[in-house]
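ingest -> validate -> predict -> emit
validate: passed (alphabet ok, no gaps, 145 aa)
predict: started
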Amino acid sequence: MYDSLLELFIGKWSDFINSFSPDEMEMEAAKKVQVLFENQYLVIGTVMFLLVALTWVFYYIWLNNLPGLFYKKKYWLMAGFLCSILTGIITFFIIKFQVNINIPFGRYLFGIVIINCVYSIIAYFFFSILFNGFTNAKTTPFKLF
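emit:
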């Protein structure tokens, strides 16, 4: 799913690789960047789901049981936004440390970070719908919107 969205928003990997022609060494390095990116999809997807689950636990189990008005829409949105920002930061560092080749691939790094942030917001919304019945929280996405 990352590749199709990257292609939609950033461009095809083949365009990225061909931008280094006619230099064969740089084209091989660009192909290696693509492979290294694709090898990280499972890792960044897993990290994203773990952060979504932790954010869900933070909001529904801990924050909603505190005294106060933490069941309001703005706190639910803040928790989702925090999840998205943390997902983006961790995605950036995972890819930055795993793809260490000296050719410019910033557009693709930025694209995957943004895509993972959007996925985390969507996943947080669905986690809130699916697992809210296991808590005594007062806020669900259905009550929010």
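Helices lie at 2-9, 13-18, 24-62, 73-98, 106-131, 141-144.
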